[in-house]
Amino acid sequence: MVTHKAKASLAAALLTLAALPAQAQDWTGAYIGAGASSHSGTNTDFFNGALATGFQNPDNRSGSMKSIHAGYRYQVENVVYGVELSRASGRLEMETVPGNHISGTTTALAKIGYATDNILLSMGVGYFEGKLVPNCVASCGTADISGLALSIGADYAFESGMTVGAAIIRRENRKGAYSLLSGDHVNKGTDTALELRVGYNF
């Protein structure tokens, strides 16, 4: 779960990065990296347009994931443009039905940021797809979820090309139909993640 303490820790980390000695940094180029994230969100199931019954609905969803990412940035003065593709895997479970989980997501983001020496502040907007696995997978199938993805974050670059950073990522699943059920039975939800990441700029 993304707590107030976690957000305060992110703010403290950004202030620490800002206090580090600065060297001129050109963010243009390709990059790769990996991350770990803590998630909290909601899960809502609908049947024929109404809330499904028989279990707690809506419900909360939480868990953790590990990810890899790759992208490209282009810097013009202090403004940095870029694109990024990431793949995350883990287990985001419903609070009252732990077996119901999201097993992974793929996210594509268009990003824009502001660079000041070795620090890059950025935000992104894009699209994600994922896989939801319910308890009744044998009779319900899985659900392909997808929707809007938003991000805001900060990265710090070392002279070696290594980077460390953190980001808050918001995903909104608009509509995911279970593969073995009627199309009138769909899932919607939200997911907010706090991600810590490392990377390398080529």
What does this molecule look like?
The structure is a single chain. An eight-stranded antiparallel β-barrel has the order 1-3-4-5-6-7-8-9. The longest helix has 16 residues, at 4-19. It has two helices and nine strands. With 202 residues, the protein is mainly beta.
CATH fold type: Porin
* Series of secondary-structure elements, N-terminal to C-terminal: HEEEEEEHEEE
Q: Numbering strands along the chain, what is their spatial order in the largest sheet?
A: 1-3-4-5-6-7-8-9
Q: What would CATH call the class? A: Mainly Beta
What would you report as the Rg, rounded to the nearest angstrom? 19 Å
* β-strand amount: over 45%
Shape: elongated
Tally the beta strands: 9
Just name the CATH architecture.
Answer: Beta Barrel
- Helix content range of the residues, please? under 10%
Total domain modules: 1
* Largest sheet entry: 8 strands, antiparallel, barrel
Instruction: Please identify the structural class as seen in this structure.
Output: mainly beta
